[in-house]
Amino acid sequence: MLTRLAGLLLTLLVASVVIYGALYLAPGDPSTLLAGNKATPRTLESIREQWHLDDPFYERYWAWLSGAVRGDLGESFTYKQSVGSLISDRIGTTTLLIAYAFALVLVGGVLLGIVGALRPRAGAGITAVSSVGIAVPSYVAAIVLITVFAVELGWFPVFGDGTGFLDRLWHLTLPAIALALAWNAYVAQLTKAAVHEESLRDHVATARSRGVAEGAIVRRHIVRNALIPITTVLGITIAGLVAGTVVIEQSFNLNGIGSLLVQATSSKDFALVQGISLLLVTIFVVVNVGVDLLNAALDPRLRTERRP
Amino acid sequence: MHGAATAGHREDGVTGPAPTPPAALLSIRALRVDLRAEGELRRVIHDVTLDVAEGESVGLVGESGSGKSMTARAVARLLPEGAVTGGEIVFDGEPVLTLRGAALRRFRRGGIATIFQDPAAHINPVRTIGDHLTEGLRLVRGVDAREAERRAAAMLGEVGIAGGERRLRQHPHELSGGMLQRVMIASVLLDEPRLILADEPTTALDVTTQSEVMALLSELSRERRLAMLYITHDLELAAGVCDRTAVMYAGAVMEVQRSAALNDGPLNPYTAALLAARPRVDARSDRLEAIAGRPRSAFEAPEGCVFADRCPHVEDACVAERQELRPLAGGLVRCRRAEELRGRLGHA
Predict the structure, then answer these.
(1) Residues in chain B closer than 8 A to A301 (CB atoms)
(2) Is A265 helix (H, G, I), strand (E, B) or coil?
(3) DSSP 3-state of B286
(4) SS3 state of residue B342
(5) pLDDT per residue over B169-180, tens digit each?
(6) Architecture category of domain A88-303 in CATH
(7) pLDDT tens-digit profile of B267-307?
(8) Best interface-test mutation with B: which of A197, A199, A206 has the largest number of B CBs within 10 A?
(9) Residue of B37, B58, B195, B43 whose CA lies nearest to B115
């Protein structure tokens, strides 16, 4: 457990160096970007001083990191606002979108996969549909969904994030579907393969030979064991959904972290890009640890301490 | 009888079922099995006829590919999907091969329990030993959890595993192979069967553990007067623990005899060859006798006698026609020259 925690911190530390260093190494003089092309050398000078641009790398990195640990990610120079408050204003929408999409993947992907593995005839259809699902890029899905369900049928709003929980859910339905679609298909395929593999195990034959009812065999010996690979796939899915919000929030004009990152990148708002990147990396690392812990809980072979 | 209906509705070409002796708990008659491989049917069992009486232990011996394990799977109704069967299997007066749905599940919970070759694969690795042991009691017979655990812990003691209560919380990977096979035996006994199908129960174990586990299984089943069909490639071991021994080759039973008689007076040249091929501890020899050629699977066996192409006593007539299993000297043999070779076979 302790080694796992140390590994987590080390990963974050390395990631933070890369995130900070990447922008440091990016071409162009940040002061010119900040002040514009026509700035006088005097203005540039004062900007460089204000943003500590002339300090050595490790000093600036340290100042940034120690701030980040205290929750201060610096100030965005396009918004003239703290990065922390910019993120916290938008994190709700993004979290809800990801949770919504993940719920769809759980119900759609995992359930379809299980049914597909146990009912070969349904399985063929599920494979065909999910192959299409995997192949469709999320922004294409977004356009189709908006055209059909928002513009033509008018069942859902075209864009915006809404106010109040139910209204927000209603606004986020199409984005969540577009975001979940490909992952749904991917999870369905892998779940189907995992469940099928487990259904052929010898211990399943043992249970069958003892006269255990088929439903109990599926629950206790097939799905239970398949949960281990499925958990791993779901971890990858969460990471993928987080990354996918960048495209989806843009497509549906949602005011979330993803669209904030796109704006920050195009305006070279270093502090903002760094803050969001650090947040995303932290999420990935935490999800990974969560998957490890879940797998250890599901698979006794992973949690036995080694004996001499 | 049930047999007539069964035989009529399967296309097995058997003219009328052979009479089943009333004493037999398990009766296998002219069993034939084809498995589907790459779209075509492939024969794995030609003709297996064998009885196991109440309380009797019968060894079924053969080389790999002889069809002995498939016979066990047919009896336990665990043949792979798409398998086609002929002949009949009757357990306790009920034809087994035609059972479906609820009747099949009733049959499985009611009397035959299987001990599999590789306990590590046949016990769910993510569930506890206690789960495995009590599953049959709780899920199939509705015994409540506490009572089931009490019985399971007691049964672990009987199969020689101390600390039952603690063991119930352990997982399979924390136990050795020999221990796991004891757990498997305990789980089978907890289900209170009338017949144990032991499919090479000791093959995956160390030699020293093998004899311990075998002795345990044999003792416990005798104690409870359970019938046992013991499948193995080890002729000597089978003869040592079983009342009668059947020898299989290329998907057919070649000979069935009382175990004591088999060693000294094999009736079939194949049995004699098997006995001769066995390395002996008491007599040092520079070379081992090997049977010429390689073992045949059922689908590649010759047209006439299945052993004809490897038999040292083969004659033209042997190659010409299939041999039937027929009674001789209190046993059963499938060989046209059995009477004439009797007494000349064996390793004397």
Answers:
(1) 125-126, 171, 173
(2) helix
(3) coil
(4) coil
(5) 999 999 988 899
(6) Orthogonal Bundle (1.10)
(7) 888 888 888 877 666 666 666 667 777 777 778 777 888 88
(8) A206
(9) B195
Chain centroid to CA B312: 28
Q: Output the pLDDT for position B280.
A: 64
| Nearest Cα residue to A290 out of A227, A236, A246 | A236
Buried b (16+ CB within 10 A) or exposed e, A245-266: bbbbbbbbebebbbbbbebbee
Contact (CB<8Å) A300/B118 = no
How far apart CA A276 and CA A134 sit, in angstroms, is 28
Angle at CA of residue B45, ends B44 and B47, nearest 5°: 160
Between A222 and A169, name the one with better pLDDT: A222
- State the virtual CA torsion across B301, B305, B309, B312 in degrees, nearest 10: 150
The per-residue pLDDT for A31 is: 67
Q: Please state, rounded to an integer, the average pLDDT across all residues of chain B.
A: 83
The Cα B135–Cα B151 span in angstroms is 12
Q: How far apart are alpha carbons A132 and A127 in whole angstroms?
A: 9
The secondary element (H helix, E strand) that includes residue B70 is: helix B68-76
CA angle, residues B243, B248, B250, in degrees to nearest 5:
175
Looking at CA atoms only, how far is residue A211 from chain B in angstroms? 5
* Per-domain residue ranges of chain A: 2-72, 88-303
DSSP 8-state code for residue B174: G
Which is it for the CA torsion B215, B221, B222, B226, positive or negative? Answer: negative
Does the beta-carbon distance from B124 to A220 stay under 8 Å?
yes
Q: Which residues contact B44 (CB under 8 A, 6 or more apart)?
A: B33, B34, B35, B67, B70, B251, B297, B298, B299
Q: How confident is the model at residue B37 (pLDDT cuts 50, 70, 90)?
A: confident
Supply the pLDDT for residue B185: 92
Among A205, A220, A304, whose Cβ lies nearest the Cβ of B173?
A304
Beta strands in chain A (DSSP E): 75-76, 81-82
**Core vs surface per residue A150-184: b (16+ CB within 10 A) or e:** beeeeebbeeebbeeeeebeebbbbbbbbbbbbbb
CB pairs < 8 Å spanning A and B: 79
In sequence order, what are the residues at sequence separation of 6 or more whose Cβ sits closer than 8 angstroms to the Cβ of residue B312?
A: B269, B273, B292
The confidence score (pLDDT) of residue A102 equals 95
pLDDT digits over A2-14, tens only? 777 888 888 888 8
Which residue of chain B has the CA closest to A301?
A: B173
Crossing angle of helices B145-158 and B177-190, in 10° steps, is 130
Q: What is the pTM of this model?
A: 0.81
Q: Among A226-240, B90-104, B283-297, which is the least confidently predicted range?
A: B283-297
ipTM above 0.85, yes or no: no
Q: How far lies B127's CA from each of A233, B108, B172, B174, in Å?
A: 22, 22, 8, 12
Residue B5 has pLDDT above 60, yes or no: no
CA-closest candidate to residue A169, choices A82, A62, A96, A91: A96
